[in-house]
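hey can u check if this looks right to u? its 732 residues, i copy pasted from the old doc so theres a chance i mangled smth
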Amino acid sequence: MPRFSIVVPSHGVAGRLSQALDSVLAQSFGDFELIPVCDAPDAPATDVVTGYAERDSRVTPVHSPPSDGLAGARNTGLRAAVGGHVLFLDGDDVLASGALAALDARLGETGDVDVLYFEHERTPWWEGEPTNPAAPLLARTPDGVFTPDRAPRLTGVTLPAWSAVYRRAFLTEQGLAFPGDHFTDVGFGGLVALRAERVAALRTVVVRHRLRRQGNRLGLPGEHHAELLDQTELVLTRAAELDLPADRLKPLFEQLFAAVLKTAAHPRRLTSGRRVFFRRASALYRRHRPDGYRAPGGSLGVQHRLLASGSYAAFRSLRAANRTAARAAALLPRPRGLRTRLRYAAALRLPLDRNLVVYCAYWGRGYACNPAAIHAKARELAPHLRAVFLVEPDAVGSVPPDVEYAVIGSRAYWQVLARAKYLVNNANFADAVVKRPGSVHLQTQHGTPLKTMGADQATYPVVAAATGSFARLLARVDRWDYNLTSNRHSTEMWERAFPSTHETLEYGYPRNDVYCTASAEDVARVRKELGVPDGKKALLYAPTHRDYATGFETGLDLAEFCEAIGDDYVVLLRAHYFYDRGAGRGGGRIIDVTGHRSSEDVCLAADGLITDYSSIMFDYANLDRPIVVYADDWDVYRETRGVYFDLMELPPGRVARTPGELAAVFRDGSWADETATSLRAVFRERFCQFDDGRAAERVVRRVLLGEPPESIPPVVPLAERVPAPAATLVRS
């Protein structure tokens, strides 16, 4: 039997789960079992956990459906546990170094106490000093083993479940489990403290709790706040059944109702049913108020007295001013120019147009990428919706003749942004755009992240300087309702890079649908449009942007490269979109396609891809055609830009470090041999998970038509997909 069973629920924390698991497996004390609790076999966290279970026999994952919530996940882990003591750890928290050794040593001193409380740190997600909220409470407890009556303020209801280790036999004998769904720590902590007979404290930080940028899920608006009263009633009823002494009941009562009053007074937590909540809380207050209880002083005491008297109208008036001020600040428009501000403010007062969808791609560069693909599918599945594409003045020509558009900054631009029910973008809307209640913002992204993104860029000075204010960036992220991903890797990385409360849609990228739906005729048409000679193999060269470089440099002499590989090839040059000047450059065997509006068309035309670290490789892999990585400055790029994984260890095909090596793989044919094919297959398994040709349909049905998740078409398995045919290569 292991000394400790460590239960780690993982719902919604796949992006940071590995750090939690690493913190456990790196402990110097190794006598434990680690029980990650995943939603289902195909959940994002399961991919993370599976690798750990294969490498370490102490990792024994179990599953609990999301509908069972945090309480259900912890109870599932508890039932599976066989260790002498149980420790609960949230999936985005970490154990401090030496934590298990410290717990083992303390238990050796105290014997098998029912509960051993310990200190924990709450670490700000971005910057600031960590706090240790349990330290003052534990500092007042006796030094050795003690009974609960010797520390009456240690009620358990103010401490999270992961701030103690529990004797498993004690929990089993007392029938203790996590109650309800929301605010389960309140109920569990209170019930444990009421039943415990032998208690001890460890005045050492064991868990480092990383505060989420979006805050605790319990703080979000919703009807779930009524469950705080359920947990309060459960604990106080059990205390009454046990005839809890007054010196223990008073602090328990006070701590529970401090949480209740905080919720009742919060302007946004209770979106409806405030009066019902208050009246029920008032009834509980009067029913369980200890004899002779005196309310605290100050404003909190006023709230106690109003709750005791059931004076909801007076209580409501205390918070009215703050609520009004907050609402006014949230609706304050910020575009430049007095006339524009006034027009935008006026439009914001008009009702939302529930049939209006606003699209934008690459900050208005044109009709392109995922927004364009969603727009095209919406015209088919939701023809009742009016669509407006936002473009810069010089990109108007890219918009098809039958697509309505508005020029960015114009009066029409601000009008549709103020009125639209749906806003779809692959980058971000301007800072001045207000997120109206009832509007739906869909972030489609425009690539799979190899390089660091969002908040993860902060530790790379060159990138951070170019990014600007991270606070403003994350304010834009807060407007998202949905975020689209094309693979599980992206799901995890976006969660880290863009922490907020949006919902992730693992539907694939709509722009990549064409890679499964295009025909040989489509491929031939595009090649003709681009000027690819018949019978020639077209190699797409698509280098990415360097944050440490000024201007566009290919890093490769394409004329010399073409000369070295022979006459069978032509090169399609597509520079990063930062360097799109709208006109072609070069000629002969080098065809500049940087200005072509559709990267998907260019990929269809190419028989192979040469890239460095551009995210185009992830999209192109859906075509199952050869990819060669030209990594002439990988070490510099990795250190300067930051990456999420080592591309050299998981390449999509052959890797070349010099112009000579690059030319050689084409002269000897190894760019498309069995080794290259095997590398690509592994890459595709990881990064082509959801791009099956139906991504746009899934997005339109879920976001624009509001269909329930269970009715959305499932993703076609990778092995069953048939990519668009290449012009000169024969697929095995």
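The first strand starts at residue 4 and ends at 9.
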